[in-house]
Amino acid sequence: MPAWPTGLVGPPWELLLALGYLLVLLAGQGVPVLLAFWMPRLPGTPKAEPERLPSLSVIIPARNEEGPLGACLDSLAEQDYRSSGGSLEVIVVDGGSSDRTGAIARAHRIGATVLPEPPLPDGWVGKNWACHQGYLRSQGEYLLFLDADLVLAPPVLRRAVGQAREERTGLLSLASRIVMQGFWERVVLPLFTQFVLVYFVAPRANVDHSHRAMANGQFMLFTRECYASVGGHEAIRGTILEDVRLAQRVKGLGHRLRVYWTPDWVTTRMYADRREMWEGLLKNLHGTDFSASRQLALAGLVALFFLLPLGVLGTSLAGALAPVWGIFSAVLVGITAVKQVGFQRTLEGGGSGVYGLLYPAAALFYLGLFSASLSRGLRGREVTWKGRAYPLDPAGPEAPRAPVSPGSGKR
Q1: Element spanning 312, H or E
Q2: Which residues contact 169 (CB under 8 A, 6 or more apart)?
Q3: Cβ within 8 Å of residue 194, ≥6 positions away
Q4: Greater pLDDT, 122 or 90
Q5: d(CA 360, CA 292)
Q6: Contact 261, 39 (CB under 8 A)
Q7: Which CATH entry fits the domain spanning 56-176+216-270: 3.40.50.2300, 3.60.15.10, 3.90.550.10, 3.20.20.70?
Q8: Distance between CA 282 and CA 118 in Å, rounded?
Q9: d(CA 80, CA 48)
Q10: Looking at the whole model, is its pTM more than 0.85?
Q11: What pLDDT digit, counting tens, does each position of 330-358 carry?
Q12: Would you call 47 helix, strand, or coil by DSSP?
């Protein structure tokens, strides 16, 4: 057994330093828990049913989405929007798919309009171009930009539109429950949701006088007037993280923004496999406005809150630090594990949450992502996604800019 240093805590200054270490890291682990608790949910029932539902256009950008698209369209067909008197049009913009995406959309009973996407112009991101094409064809008073991998439980369309009308929002966005399959998705994605909560201080997006703004690009419901006034996707044509930039424009121009978490009504499997998850998360963390200092800072925070206690615990057990450091680190490791298990269970809607215990592997995964981002960015390499490449912005980082995006783009 290793020999412990004499005394439990060492000199008084060391105890104070160890207490500061404990409190800072405890606070860091508590922040996402509080934000998740404060995140509002879409009310289940309206204050009053509207006399008339407004016309709604659902615009789905789809590039090589033959796997999830059928389930998405099935869920739209099962909504009660039309049976409740509302006019609903569905527009699928096929972004040059090499699979059966277009055929699936054309054959579906929902009666979708399928638009072949025109050639992608210079300076446009694929998803933004597709959404813009759908908007030009649409007729609805409300516009819902919906990712092809979302599944909606009824009556979420009617409730979302009703809530948007009640609160007079320009943009209402719903955050989905992530369906996780396989080892790496269950290990990695719960930590991603915490990044989103903390970076954006997500509940503050719903506070009208706050400058905080975010949206989930998988489900963005605009009034037609608001969408046109902020310039739509055309105004942010070259931005990969389009949802955040649109939310910033909405709030900046004085429109009301609301974001709700709807785990029982909206679900998605974000990535088809580990390779796609790596590429998608790298795209969101990296963006086209690469900043080495930002990536280093974020990597440092991941290491500080998720890996440092393990290192300090091991060093203390080896006898190089006073036992108090080991005791405090053991407390931090235990609390972090319990928190991660809780997030895992919440995102999966139950289960054991055992994958949350593997949070050090998730932290190492993200350190790998930040390292890859640094390597690519310092060499000026393009951002790639869905077989398309987007050059880095030579003007440098945008301000304000988010390093992660809740659901920016399956395209």
Answers
A1: helix 308-317
A2: 163, 223, 255, 256, 257, 258
A3: 32, 343
A4: 90
A5: 23
A6: yes
A7: 3.90.550.10
A8: 27
A9: 17
A10: yes
A11: 999 999 999 999 999 988 877 788 999 99
A12: coil
